């Protein structure tokens, strides 16, 4: 069974976000956390998850659920959405910020 969200294909244990493996988000999260000097508990509070969840993401033991992807990418300051090609996609992107 596959779940479709804007830019996300979440299918059983395989999760891709705009062609990017979600496992690499854990590595990016850890790098961000180390660069900014934040602790895992700080990130967990920001994302409204348990500290153990952050540990598991960083070590690749589990993957973020689709409901956490948006907050995670906003925290990292990266936009993993596909390029807006039509005027309607550009308008939506503008409205979303």
The portion of residues forming beta strands comes to 5-15%
The geometry reads as elongated
- Distance between the terminal alpha carbons, to the nearest Å? 31 Å
Q: Main sheet: which strands, in order across?
A: 1-2-3-4
| Mean pLDDT over all positions | 77
Strands, total number:
4
SS-derived structural category: alpha+beta
The quaternary state of the protein chains shown equals: single chain
Q: What gyration radius follows from the Cα positions, in whole Å?
A: 14 Å
H and E string: EEEEHHHHH
Description:
The protein is α+β, with helices and mostly antiparallel strands and 97 residues long. It has helices at 23-36, 40-47, 51-58, 66-76, 87-96, and strands at residues 2-5, 8-11, 14-17, 20-21. Strands 1-2-3-4 form a 4-stranded antiparallel β-sheet. Helix 1 crosses helix 3 (51-58). Mean pLDDT is 77; it is low at 1-18.
Key words describing this protein structure:
single chain; 97 residues; alpha+beta; 5 helices; 53% helix
Summarize the structure in short.
With 97 residues, this protein is of the alpha+beta class.
């Amino acid at each position: 069974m596959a779940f479709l969200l804007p830019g996300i294909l979440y299918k059983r244990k395989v999760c891709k976000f705009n062609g990017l493996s979600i496992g690499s988000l854990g590595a990016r999260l850890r790098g961000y956390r180390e660069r900014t000097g934040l602790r895992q508990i700080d990130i967990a509070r920001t994302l409204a998850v348990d500290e153990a969840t952050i540990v598991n993401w960083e070590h690749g033991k589990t993957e973020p659920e689709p409901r956490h992807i948006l907050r995670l990418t906003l925290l990292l300051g990266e936009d993993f959405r596909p390029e807006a090609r039509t005027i309607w996609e550009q308008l939506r992107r503008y409205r979303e910020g």
